[in-house]
Design brief:
- The chain has 259 residues and is an alpha+beta fold.
- The longest helix has 23 residues, at 231-253.
- It has nine helices and seven strands.
- The N and C termini lie far apart (71 Å).
- It is elongated.
- Helices cover 38% and strands 11% of the residues.
Length: 259
């Protein structure tokens, strides 16, 4: 395959960026998109040119590192797949492909296709954990959980934190990511002690990171490589409302307030 790439190149967050054209010749259709970029970078190195910076790690659709827009679509044309799982046979010979980084205020650009996604880590730190002692795996198997709750929790737990939902959302919202983490823990017995404190803290951190607000466009679930449903957002909103109302009731009962 012979392809034309138009890749966003930007030396740093304060440098001027632009799309640069590269010819990718003799590309095997069985290569992944990242392997194709590896070949392009090898050829750039041979010519003494700066290789394209992009994030990657596991290359198995697990780590969520391979974050990039391909022809304006988060992770590219294959639904339910991360960039590393997209193979070049998904494109046409001679096709021009535009490759850009995630575009979101909360994901500042580092270099070329690399962005800083640590805002998602800080949302997790705000409440995406449990403190209840649960013992080992054998102890966990002694706790009976309804199958529908287990299935929904596991579907939400599939989130790899890639940020595609943010990049695809017209508002730059991280609601699908945050809701997936809240849903995963909120459905399990171990997650109940902190259930409502968790949703309040994680939503507050999401707002502090300057993500946009969710208006349920649905682009997030279309871009998600794990096909997580926006039903998780509805569940997060319900828990947030319950947590907020409960806090108000407790304040009123104790005579609290700022009056």
């Amino acid at each position: 395959m012979n392809l034309t790439l138009r890749v966003w190149r930007q030396a740093g967050p304060n440098a001027e960026g632009r799309l640069v054209t590269y010819e990718a010749h003799d590309i095997s259709p069985d290569m992944s998109f990242l392997e194709m970029l590896d070949v392009v970078n090898e050829r750039l190195n041979e010519r003494g040119e700066e290789p394209i910076a992009f994030s990657h790690d596991c290359r198995e659709g697990i780590c969520g590192s391979c974050a990039m827009m391909i022809d304006g679509v988060a992770h590219g044309p294959v639904k339910g797949a991360a960039t590393c799982q997209v193979h070049m046979r998904s494109f046409e010979d001679g096709q021009e492909i535009v490759v850009e980084p995630w575009r979101a205020r909360a994901f500042p650009l580092v270099k070329d296709l690399v962005v800083d996604r640590s805002a998602l880590d800080r949302i997790i730190q705000a409440g995406g954990f449990i403190t209840a002692p649960t013992g080992g795996a054998r102890d966990a198997n002694d706790i009976l959980i309804a199958k529908d709750a287990v299935d929904t929790a596991m579907d939400a737990a599939a989130c790899i934190g890639c940020g595609a939902c943010v990049a695809a959302c017209p508002n730059g919202s991280a609601s699908l990511f945050t809701a997936a983490k809240i849903t995963h823990l909120g459905l399990l017995p171990q997650g109940q002690p902190e259930r409502f404190r968790r949703v309040v803290n994680m939503v507050a951190q999401m707002d502090e990171e300057h993500f946009g607000h969710c208006t349920l466009y649905g682009e997030c679930q279309e871009a998600c490589p794990k096909m997580i449903s926006i039903d998780t957002i509805a569940r997060m909103n319900r828990d947030f409302i319950r947590a907020t109302l409960t806090a108000r009731d407790e304040t009123a009962a104790t005579g609290g307030g700022t009056g």
